[in-house]
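User: structure tokens for this one?
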Amino acid sequence: MAVKASITHVIFDMDGLLLDTEKFYTEVQEIILARYNKTFDWSLKAKMMGKKAIEAARVFVEETGISDSLSAEDFLVEREEMLQSKFPTSELMPGASRLIKHLHANGIPICVATGSHTRHFELKTQRHCELFSLMHHIVRGDDPEVKHGKPSPDVFLAAARRFEGGPINPQKILVFEDAPSGVLAAKNAGMSVVMVPDPRLDASYHETADQVLSSLLDFNPSEWGLPPFDKAAS
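Assistant:
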């Protein structure tokens, strides 16, 4: 199979891609909306995913028509209390550990670029510190260089600058994302992107990505000029 691009560096999104945290947001948002006799659906979820918290919160209260009763700021305060207890139970997504360890073992520089703020990042990753320690660096949503959340390319451009010898040429970088806004952010940064979307996400969102997979387990590094998985390991 023809190599899609000659990739030297890899950037990972975190929520819904490496960690199964998106379900927590869904659960909490369903509880809040139920008070207003409204339901949370995947078309709304798609618009919120990957964005900075306050940006996603504005989408939430405006699109559901509850902004007169609940401000974006108050929504975040209420959501925060419920999420604090859920985040430390975060599990890895299938194939995440295998892919990260494989790339690291083969000397491919890797990092995380997430919309999550430091406080949430630490809660979500506390059971997975060893795996996340393999990252060259981590850029979070509250980083001073990230002026705008996804779909703005800020977080990915900041990530590219911080690799050794950076900034790395965007054409040499492969981004892994699950969210429509994240896929757009990667493309806006001039990078290639593999999308691993939730199956409930409308397929129209798949079109922007260079490749769409149902799981990280389906990723074939050779297609991107990256070292192949060891047959014995897989």
